[in-house]
Amino acid sequence: MNPKTLRGPFLENEPVVFLDRKDREYLARLDRSRPIAIRGGKFSIEDIIGHEEGSVVRSSVNEPFLVFRPSLPQLIPNLPRNAQVIYPKDLGPILIWADLFPGARVVEAGVGAGALSMALLRAIASEGHLYSYELRQDFVAMAEKNVAKYFGAAPNWTLKIGDVATELEESDIDRVVLDLPEPWQVIKSAWKALRPGGILLCYLPTVLQVKSLVDALRDDQRFACIETLETLMRFWHIKGMSARPQHRMVAHTGFLTCARRLADGQKDIPRSP
Ligand SMILES: C[S@@+](CC[C@H](N)C(=O)[O-])C[C@H]1O[C@@H](n2cnc3c(N)ncnc32)[C@H](O)[C@@H]1O
Q: In the prediction, which pLDDT does 83 show?
């Protein structure tokens, strides 16, 4: 079963998201052995299996909820995790700035809870391949579980326990996407793994890390098109005559820095100051 391609009535063991009257989200699974409890009420799985997405269902305390298969923006913030995940706000720009495409051969590190892995798997489709490196065994286990539960079977995903800076083995890679604290340690192995023209994209929370990375990329001279950006996303409140930005917003998550690998033996051209 691949939750991403399912249509029609809900089936047993599917992930679902419940939305209450304030649009608060509750991620659950249609598992007969584990009844779903939300806000003091319970759901019988039998009452949900067989309904279409977008149905109204009522808990045992008669509270109404909408139920859907979770979209990626509904899934990621609610994903079980033991490390910070990359949020949909940044996942969208990562997919475009790293220029992901169906069929791409991609290396990713670190894996954490697997949020970025799911977005990458979806973008490369079944004809691509994702090689993911993670230092910690417990994170690998969690990511494996999350992907199996919420993304579905991923035969084109190779998940490795190891340090991507010293153990990266792949070659002819189209994209390297890094979410780890010291990506400058990975520049040499990323260059080796990438094919000419391949893209390295790094996600970093602080500008001091960005500075270290960009300096190291420039010193290396074998990457060009080095760009750093951040995304500011503001949700709006639209209700009756009240149409305004929401009072609160997430002011900062991280910076994206991307660069393109030059051909073998080539160095970046001199830049004007
Ligand atoms: C912030 S978490 C990644 C979250 C993940 N991208 C997501 O969206 O769910 C950073 C991860 O990088 C891993 N890590 C740090 N340095 C690494 C390295 N050199 N090689 C592989 N993994 C590394 C850490 O163990 C940690 O799990």
A: 87
CA of 180 to the centre of ligand 1 (A): 5
| pLDDT lower than 50: segments of the chain | none
- Taking the centre of ligand 1 as the mean of its atom positions, its distance from the CA of residue 199, in whole angstroms, is 19
- Domain definitions of the chain by residue range: 15-70, 74-261
Q: List, edge to edge, every strand of the sheet that includes 129-134.
A: 157-161, 129-134, 105-109, 173-178, 194-204, 255-261, 223-229
Q: Ligand 1: residues whose CB is within 6 Å?
A: 83-86, 109-116, 133-136, 139, 163-165, 179-180
Ligand 1, closest atom to CA 79?
Answer: 9
Q: Is the pTM of this model over 0.85?
A: yes
* pLDDT tens column, 171-196: 999 999 999 999 999 999 999 999 99
The DSSP bridge pattern shows strands 157-161 and 223-229 to be unpaired
Mutation test residue for ligand 1: of 180, 188, 209, 255, the one with most atoms within 8 Å of CB: 180
| All residues at 6 or more sequence positions from 158 whose CB lies less than 8 Å from its CB, including other chains | 129, 130, 131, 132
Question: Which CATH number applies to 74-261?
Answer: 3.40.50.150
Pocket test for ligand 1, best of 179, 203, 213 (most atoms within 8 A of CB): 179
Please state which CATH number belongs to domain 15-70: 3.10.330.20
pLDDT single digits (tens) 46-99: 889 999 999 999 999 999 999 999 999 999 999 988 889 999 999 999 999 999
The DSSP bridge pattern shows strands 194-204 and 255-261 to be: antiparallel
